Amino acid sequence: MKSTVKIVLPVLCLLLSAPAIAKDLTHRIGLGYNAQFNQTNDINGTPAISLKYGLAPRAVIDLIAGFNGTKNSSGVGALKYMYTIFPETYANFYGLAAFGLVNLNEKSGSEILGGFGGEFFIPGVDSLGISFETGVAVQSVTGTTILKSYGISFINAGMHFYF
Hints:
Blueprint: H1 2-15, E1 29-34, E2 48-54, E3 59-68, E4 74-88, E5 91-104, E6 107-121, E7 128-141, E8 144-152, H2 154-157, E9 158-162
Antiparallel strand pairs: 1-2, 1-9, 2-3, 3-4, 4-5, 5-6, 6-7, 7-8, 7-9
């Protein structure tokens, strides 16, 4: 019963939330970087290029691709979906779900992310979004599955310029 409430309550909050008053990114393209996936560690780091697109006033998708061709090669190809839960005047606070194919030290696998984040817009610089994210990740590389929490500051989570 408790697990059902934990699932149903957030879904109802998403579906019954008020109209957006935040930064409207509908039909806008954001080009920038993203570093949420595990390929961004210090040894085999690969911050990825990110291309965001606003599907609707509250819904955004993000295509992510990155690689590192050094001795311990790594890379990622991913898709992330973000839905604004709490709109503010110069910020969008959102829930997110993401799936990525990762390559770490020449071993391939997948990573799933779920969590919350925010993208902030500086007044007067309306086309530049700076974000942070936190949540849970499940990574499966060559049969080993790891469950971990993550917290990404605005330095790593992303920065996008919107056209």
